[in-house]
Design goal:
This protein is mainly alpha-helical. The protein has one domain. The chain is built from 5 helices and no strands. Helix 3 runs antiparallel to helix 4. The radius of gyration is 17 Å and the shape is flat. The termini are far apart.
Length: 118
């Protein structure tokens, strides 16, 4: 249920961006969301839900995807576009925050510690 809600939120975000931005930026944002979701979820599983590693995984994989895409574009004769790279990274940041909001694992641990203290 939580994953479906997160997917719907991301879908509506991308649809609304499509009306205001050029299509290439929206595609880069979507690629950042996809690569960030893979990296963020893997990092979250490996680190047992650590927030920092979830963000590093999401943003890091979207950064790598953006750098790879811009390098391929540049080798094909197209100019390097920092706006495309920023859109890809923004997709990774968005999915990193979404994973953190819907995981709730840290909040449960924090609430258990406060009950033990009081």
């Amino acid at each position: 249920m939580k994953n479906s809600l997160a997917l719907l939120i991301l879908l509506f975000t991308v649809v609304r961006l499509n009306a205001q931005l050029e299509n290439d930026k929206v595609l880069h944002f979507g690629a950042g969301v996809l690569s960030g979701a893979i990296g963020g979820l893997l990092a979250s599983e490996i680190s047992d839900g650590d927030r920092t590693w979830t963000y590093v995984g999401a943003v890091g994989t979207s950064l790598l995807a953006g750098l790879a895409k811009e390098s391929i574009d540049q080798s094909n004769g197209n100019p390097w576009d920092n706006g495309d790279l920023a859109a890809t990274i923004l997709g990774g940041v968005t999915v990193g925050v979404t994973i953190d909001l819907f995981s709730g694992k840290k909040r449960r641990k924090r609430n258990q510690l406060t009950l033990v203290v009081f």
